[in-house]
Amino acid sequence: MWYVPIEVPLTLYGEKTPPADDRPTVQVTAVSWPGVDPPPTQAGPPTAGPAGRRSRFRRPRVLLAAGVTTVVLAGAGAYAYAGDVPRGTTVLGTEVGGRSRTAAAGELRAELERRTGTLTAPLTVRVGEKTAEIDPAEVGLTVDVDATVAAAAEAGAHPVSRLVGSREVEPVVVVDADRLDAALRKVMGNQGRKMTMPAISFKGTTVKVTRPKPSLALDPQRSAEAVRAGWLAGQPVTVPLVETHPATTAEEVDKLAAELAEPAVAKAVTLRTDQGSVSIPPAAIAKSLRFSADKAGKLTPKVDVKRLRSALGDKLSKIEVEARDARMAVTGGKPKVVDDGRPGQQLDTATLGKDLLAVLPKGDDRTVSGELKPVQPEVTADKIGELGIKERVSKFTTQFTGGLSAPRSKNIVQIAKDVDGTVVLPGETFSLNGHTGERGYAQGYHDAPVIMDGKLVPGVGGGTSQFTTTLFNATYYAGLEDVEHKPHSYWFSRYPAVIESTIFWPNLDFKFRNNTEYGVLIDTSYTSSSITVSIWSTKIYDSVKTEYGPRRDITKPVTTYLEPGPSCIPANGIDGFAQDAFRVIKKDGKVVKREKFSWRYAAEPRFVCGKKPS
Q: How far is the C-alpha of 365 from the C-alpha of 218, rounded, in Å?
């Protein structure tokens, strides 16, 4: 009787079939049938039956047993692998296993539909000590069905997990983090606190230290994680308030102050160049040594070279030669180059800040070396010739009284001289304050009436606003771009309403931009009673005109009595009103631009220097 061991190849799901001689086998041992001898325990030749005959039925029976085993294994695999999602998989208690992804998604959507009341109910959140309810729809809080089904399919991807057991897959919850954060901030209210950034500054040469403190605020990512995890639990969700500490600690701030800021202003630093030396005093160091904190609160020291140059003032003139631009002037009715300009020499600041920072902690040997490099003028004679400055495109004049000997008239003439001959390149913005700098006694300006706190008082530079208004109108009628201007608080009849501008160092400025492809030359001239500004360039527009709307909201002046004395300047009073002005620009016979300018003037009080009558 033959006993035949059966070897059945077992191929794992997703794996390639190994070579024939390496296939894993399942050995099936034949069972004893009634009346049949047990199989031999050792390999040997087949044995004969009682009558010396071989059994005719043993092999088919053994093959039948092997076939049953194979069918059972194949059937189990087929059952487990039915559908994209393995059997036994549930989401929210709903069976989605044994289905395709599409069918599983449909079953899950049906379950979510049955739970609509729960899923749309307001979610209770706790932020710090405050509790509130949030509408899930308003923050985009929902179950992502497709992502959940994909996760369910992935959860049963391993062959063993498909054959045995069941599994519950958590639904994939999504939320709009930005909308959630906005809603939670309303709940948080004033419970949070901003980060106190570390800082080191100077008051004079005295070091001032601000030690850092952490912020207490919502973290959008952690808030979203908490809400996604707790939404379907049916309980209030606690959203954490997170402390964020600045990158630079209080100890590090104190160390920076002690080891850099304080010794930095203890002594002067000597700057040596080939053209001589300059002493950088502690006050200039204090104005230029900056400690800046980034968004993370990291404090970094740096020498601001621009501030250093400003703090040194005229000291650098001992070693530097300023480059001078080429100049134009109108002679014989035509603009011509009258000065070719010249190159200069300027301190190379590329490494100066770094070199200076290196010696500031030292008590001795506080010396840095500086290099002078050639500097070319911004405007050369050749460049001027290519700018298309060939004709006058606008002109504006205003009148003044008092003659040229009056302080106010002297100020008007002085600022006109400072600006005369200026060339503004295409695309460049001209700043009147930036061009003249501070207008004080040292620059040739005098005391004259200025408006301060709503009344006329003596002040250095009074009258420069009249030049500003004249320049503004000249650029306005040239069609140039208005960048910054501010009309007076009161209207004066010597100026056009609305289209006028005041100026005051350093807070009030007048700026315009050369928005053409040509250069712009500012030409000024004056008489004993007038100031004129002309703009020379290439004419672009047919015309630039002003159309006024009616005056409205007219207010009358009140009488104010002031203490008599040299600082009291009487005034007759002027009506206040609001008005619109429209700049209408035409080109090729058509309106190409219409700009609205509006202003409201206060009524100037009638100032009387004397006591109010009883």
A: 50
Task: Quote the distance between the C-alpha of residue 419 and its chain's center.
Answer: 36
Same domain, 305 and 423: no
Specify whether 480 is located in the same domain as 353.
no
Judgement on whether residues 360 and 417 belong to the same structural domain of the protein: no
Dig out the tokens for 526 from the structure.
């004056």
Task: At 17, list the tokens.
Answer: 């079939």
Neighbours of 614 (CB within 10 A): 3
What is the β-pairing status of strands 142-143 and 173-174? Answer: antiparallel
What is the identity of the amino acid at 137?
A: A
CB contact at 8 A, 606 and 573: yes
User: CA–CA separation, 236 vs 227, rounded Å?
Assistant: 10
Q: Which domain holds residue 21?
A: 6-80
* Phi, psi dihedrals of residue 379, rounded to the nearest 5°: -115, 115
Let me know if 443 is exposed, middle or buried by CB neighbors in 10 A (0-12, 13-18, 19+).
middle
256: amino acid identity, one letter? L
Type of residue numbered 218: L
Please list the rounded mean pLDDT of every run of 10 residues in the chain (614 residues). Answer: 44 41 42 46 46 43 44 47 80 90 92 89 94 95 94 70 70 95 94 95 97 95 95 92 96 97 96 94 96 96 94 90 90 90 91 94 94 91 91 96 92 95 95 91 83 65 90 98 94 93 92 97 96 97 97 91 80 89 97 97 87 83
Q: Which amino acid is at 456?
A: L
d(CA 579, CA 598): 6
Residue 377 CA to residue 344 CA, distance in Å, equals: 8
